[in-house]
Amino acid sequence: MMRPVLLGAAVLVLAACGDKPQTASGVKSDEQPFQSVTGPGNAYNAPGWKAGDKTAWEQQLKTRLQNGQNEYNRIK
Amino acid sequence: MARMKFVCDAERCIECNGCVTACKNENEVPWGVNRRRVVTLNDGVPGEKSISVACMHCSDAPCMAVCPVNCFYRTDEGVVLHDKDVCIGCGYCSYACPFGAPQFPSQGTFGVRGKMDKCTFCAGGPEANGSQAEFEKYGRNRLAEGKLPACAEQCSTKALLAGDGDVVADIFRNRVVQRGKGAEVWGWGTAYGSKQAGQPPANGVKS
């Protein structure tokens, strides 16, 4: 009789144990995007620019924007 | 480089929701959260207009102003991002945002309101570029990969433009000149403070 009640209470009480721990240490500083992605994910980096070169990164984005989203360039 | 901006061309948007799908897929956005959505005005009426709406990364972002824990920050490119480790999920930003951008997943224990989630301009968050921790909290960091937001890059009609504000404005201006109408950029004035954008067309001008 008491067993289901106790089980139900345990589920409710222990529900929060599954939550991930959180740390609050103020806003962390963000890495600059032109530093590129390093590590395993860097296979997805777009070619044509070098990590750490801000000017090359900016030019890459401008070129990509013109080539990809300005169809007036493509139909000429 | 000028700051990053979004523009949605209401003359071109066909309400396909491709941007919404691309965003959800690219960033693995949780259930119940839509960082981007398409809004249609006068739906079903001839002349209806649709626009794709998400965080516009405002020049003077109201969300930043009202956040009680100061979890927002702006990158050098003008992208408004936030730190989910600092966010307390209070929802003030949701009330302040004129675009309805902040979203709150119900993921915590007992379905409590979780940390705020919003469009990141595909720029991730404060964690290391392209790291697993960044992806799990904020989604993909395409800017660090030398790419632009997925929503705009896959837009079939190129209604949604994203990137360097000067280039975006130049592309849009060229379109308006070519077609001779549709110069109104909804949300541009609210987000970026232009006095002329978003105003109703003058008499005799096609819209």
Describe this structure in words.
- With 76 residues, chain A is an all-alpha fold.
- Chain A has a domain of 26 residues.
- Helices cover 45% and strands 0% of the residues of chain A.
- Chain A has 3 helices and no strands.
- Chain A is elongated and about 75 Å long.
- The mean pLDDT of chain B is 90.
- With 207 residues, chain B is an alpha+beta fold.
- Chain B is built from 7 helices and 6 strands.
- In chain B, the strands form 3 sheets. Chain B has a two-stranded antiparallel ribbon.
- In chain B, strand 2 and strand 3 form a beta hairpin.
- Chain B has one domain: Alpha-Beta Plaits (2-Layer Sandwich).
- At the A-B interface, helix 2 of A face strand 6 and helix 6 of B.
Helical content of chain B, roughly?
10-25%
Taking all residues together, what is the mean pLDDT of chain B? Answer: 90
Shape of chain B: globular
Number of domains of chain B: 1
* Overall residue-averaged pLDDT value of chain A: 82
Distance, first to last CA of chain B: 31 Å
Q: Characterize the main sheet of chain B.
A: 2 strands, antiparallel
Q: Just give the CATH class of chain B.
A: Alpha Beta
Which regions of chain A contain 5 or more consecutive residues with pLDDT less than 50? none
